[in-house]
Here is the input.
Amino acid sequence: MTSKLRSMMPGLAAAAMLVGVATLTGSAALASGAGAVPRVPASGGGPQPPWYPLSPPQIGFITFYNAQGQVITGGSINAGGLGAYAVASTAAPASMPPYTKATLFAYTPVKGQNPGTWSSSELSLSTNFPNSSAPAPVGTTANPVVSGPDGSLTLAQAIAANPNMNTDPAYQKLYDLRMKVSAPQVPFTTTYWDTVISVNTSNNTWSVDWPDWTQNTGTALSATPPSPQTAPASAVTLKATVTPATDGTVTFWSGTTQIGTAQTVTSGNGVATASATPTPPTGTTPYTAVFAPAVGSMDIGSASTLNYVVNGPPAFEPTLVGPGGPGTARVGGQEFCVASFSNNPTVTYSWQSNGTPITGQQNNTVDTFTPDASLLGQSLTCSVNASNGAGSVSGTSPGVNVALGAPLVPTTKPKISGPHVVGQKEKVTAGVWSPPATTVTYQWYIGTTKVAGATKATFKVPRSALNKKVHCVVTASATGFANGVFKTPGVKIT
Here is the structure.
């Protein structure tokens, strides 16, 4: 028999915080923070285990739930792995005194033997039912409930004690879970509730194999007012719609905290509204709606998560970034007022020199400014104001002293012209500089020797320069900028 996987919580990746069970692979039927395990569609009324009908007779099946009331159909065999609760699908048989305790057993099938004679292990303590402290729907049913079925013996231990040694594929890897009830001074019933699981010993997981589940459901979660809000936020009303409309309960959660009480949904409407309306904090809050079918149903539960956003006031830390990097400024260099923002504010920028507002640079929408020579040596700061519907905040960057601008650069280079003959004059051009030079000075050289007094644009070549090269060093200056210096190529004197 091929083991069939039936996931009762399809599409539950975002609600995985409620599951509390590790991600399963292969035959897993759960969801976790790593993403939902793909769901195998239910076919409805799949093949029965080969040993059915049972003797003694079965009176119903068992459904497993986690601590938040979600149906689970798989888990780890090493961590108990059977959830927080096991619930019978029907009421306990009538008895005097009435049955009050339920216990879970694991039986190992043996082909050709009567199922009543199979070896077994107790997977749980005998626990009292009903359990009104359990989450809905477990806490609202009068049917037998085993609380903490992973409490006394792990499934791995039970399997080790009574392993499935069958060679027939129809029996391999299958174990029969049975719930029996009792009362003080009253022995266990001979009838029981039954669910068959398949065990994957390669990855140490189990999954429900029988009964087959028949109907998928979907849960859609919405909020009023819709996300996003702007702080201070108003309370939201959460609404869950189960499709198709099915009898059961919906619980609402913020993380692992339940919101209000469980809400009943019916096949008539399938709609639930949170009984307590939370006020979301600033930031992003995940809200989850979890639908659990009515106890004894063959429907498949579902869940939905909504990330609700509340935008708070802006937040930033302004920093002045100049051409030399953060914390630098110089004449003629474009400065940036850099700030990281949140919550979509409107932003304006203002600039100051030694704390005094700079004319024309107040409440601008651009974040750049180029200081001129009048600001040389002064402390430059940038102020930012950011505002949205939640409020406004302001901040000022640390002061940065404005240094000399970058050296002047010749866009047309100085050049020597002349006959290059002893006793004749050589002439050098001033060149064109960026920024424009206000002063240009000259110094002539014969070889590497500076010629004293030769500081004009023209130079009469002395006899000592015969058969040597002469060149000129041209220095350009402008207020607020470092000097630009250019050495012309040498020319040989004849």
In short: The longest helix spans residues 155-161. The two ends are 109 Å apart (CA to CA).
